[in-house]
Amino acid sequence: MIDLVIRSRRTVTPEGERAAAVAVRGEKIAALYDYAAPLGAAEDVDLRDLALLPGLVDTHVHVNEPGRTHWEGFDSATRAAAAGGVTTIIDMPLNSVPPTVDVPALEAKLAAARGRCHVDVGFWGGAVPGNVKDLGPLRERGVHGFKCFMSPSGVDEFPPLSLPELREALSEVAAVGGVMVVHAEDPALLSEPGGPTYREFLDSRPGESERSAVAAVVRLAGETGARVHVLHVSSAACLDVLERARQDGVAVTAETCPHYLTLAAEQVPEGATAYKCCPPIRSGANRDLLWDGLGRGVLTCVVSDHSPSPADLKVPDFAAAWGGIASLQLGLPAVWTEASTRGYALADVARWMSAGPASMAGISGKGAIAAGKDADLVAFDPAAGAVVDATRLHHRHPVTPYDGRRLKGAVLTTWLRGRPVDGVPHGRFLWGER
C-alpha cells in the first residue's frame, strides 16, 4: 500500500528534473513513477508545475542550546529550518554551554533537544586542547565527526588547536572514523580591527589567512590519513589549494555559504553588523570566483553557518559586534536568487544543499529523491518572489543581513519522512554511520 504520492512536473532527482510521481510508503520513498501514473495512494498531492526538491541538509548550524538558548534554541532553529526547506541539520558543538567536547556534554544537549525538534538533528563533537581522549567515546556515542578552530572561536570555552594539537586530533579521527570539520584561518595572519568600519574589519581577516590555514590542513590530512572538511570558505584564494589536494588524492572537501555567494563587501552598509561573520564577506569579484569553484566541484556544499545572537550583541561597531549571520530559513531562496541568474538549475542547488552535505556527513538516508531514501521533500515555487521581513522569520531574533532584500523562490510545504512539518515536533536524532 502506498501511503502518499506527490506529483510534480519538476521533480528534482539526482539525474536532473523530470515529471514524476514520488510514491511514499511509511517514512521512505518507495519508487518514482510516471507523473500521471494511477497509484491508488491514501493521499495524492499534485504540485503540477511547482518544483519538488529533496529536503535540504544543513551541516553547519549553531543552535546554541543549552546555555545560550536566549540566542537560539532547538525549537526555534528547527522551525526556521523547516520553513526554509531544510529537513536535516547537524548542530555545532559551540556556542552551547557546555560545549559538546565530551559525552556528558552531549547528553546535556540531547536532554535540551529532546521533544523540541521539528526536523531531524545530528551532532558534531568538538576537538579542543586536551580532549583527544574524548573523541573516541563521542564518536562511539554517535556524533558525525568533530569541529575544531585554528584561530580563536569567539567564546572562551571553545579554544583553538595549535598545529601540533591539530595533528594529534587528526590522528585520532583517522583511528575512530568520521570527519574533522575545520574553521581554517591562520591566527598569525589575523589582526585586531583598527576601528569600527567594515573595511577595517575586512582588512583584519585577509584571504591569505584562509589560504595559509587550508594549506596546513591539507598537509596534515595527507600525513595522518584523516578525512577533513574545510568550513565556510570565503576566500577564492583557497580554491587552487583545495583543487590540487583533490587531484593528489587527499581526503579533503570544502563548503561555502549563501552569504559568500549572494552578498559582497561593497554592499555592506556602515554600522550594519548583521553582515559581520568570520571569515568575512569579501568582494564581488571574489564572489564570482567562489561561484566558479562551486560550478567546477572544488566546493561541494552550500550550508548556512547559521550563527545567531540577540540584537544587543550586534552593536553598530564591526570591531565589537558578535560575528555570525542568521540565515537558516533563507538559504534556499538566497542561493536560488543568485544561481538562477548565473544559469544554474534547481538540480545544481539540490546537489550543493542536499546531496553534498549528506555525503560529507555520512548520512546515507538523506540528500536525494530516490527509492530507499527518507521521504524528506519540499514543494518549492521557483518563480515566487518576496521581500524578506526579519520579524516574520522563525529565528529567535529578527537579525539578518537579508532583511529588506528581495529574494526569489518560496518554500510552500516541507515533508519530513513523509509527514508535513506542521508545528508538532517530530524530528529525530541522527547518529553518525560507522
TrEMBL record:
<comment type="subunit">
    <text>Homotetramer.</text>
</comment>
<dbReference type="InterPro" id="IPR032466">
    <property type="entry name" value="Metal_Hydrolase"/>
</dbReference>
<keyword id="KW-0479">Metal-binding</keyword>
<dbReference type="GO" id="GO:0008270">
    <property type="term" value="F:zinc ion binding"/>
</dbReference>
<dbReference type="Pfam" id="PF01979">
    <property type="entry name" value="Amidohydro_1"/>
</dbReference>
<comment type="similarity">
    <text>Belongs to the metallo-dependent hydrolases superfamily. Allantoinase family.</text>
</comment>
<comment type="pathway">
    <text>Nitrogen metabolism; (S)-allantoin degradation; allantoate from (S)-allantoin: step 1/1.</text>
</comment>
<dbReference type="GO" id="GO:0006145">
    <property type="term" value="P:purine nucleobase catabolic process"/>
</dbReference>
<dbReference type="InterPro" id="IPR017593">
    <property type="entry name" value="Allantoinase"/>
</dbReference>
<dbReference type="InterPro" id="IPR006680">
    <property type="entry name" value="Amidohydro-rel"/>
</dbReference>
<dbReference type="GO" id="GO:0050897">
    <property type="term" value="F:cobalt ion binding"/>
</dbReference>
<keyword id="KW-0862">Zinc</keyword>
<feature type="domain" description="Amidohydrolase-related">
    <location>
        <begin position="52"/>
        <end position="421"/>
    </location>
</feature>
<dbReference type="InterPro" id="IPR050138">
    <property type="entry name" value="DHOase/Allantoinase_Hydrolase"/>
</dbReference>
<dbReference type="GO" id="GO:0000256">
    <property type="term" value="P:allantoin catabolic process"/>
</dbReference>
<keyword id="KW-0378">Hydrolase</keyword>
<dbReference type="GO" id="GO:0005737">
    <property type="term" value="C:cytoplasm"/>
</dbReference>
<dbReference type="InterPro" id="IPR011059">
    <property type="entry name" value="Metal-dep_hydrolase_composite"/>
</dbReference>
<keyword id="KW-0659">Purine metabolism</keyword>
<protein>
    <recommendedName>
        <fullName>allantoinase</fullName>
        <ecNumber>3.5.2.5</ecNumber>
    </recommendedName>
</protein>
<dbReference type="GO" id="GO:0004038">
    <property type="term" value="F:allantoinase activity"/>
</dbReference>
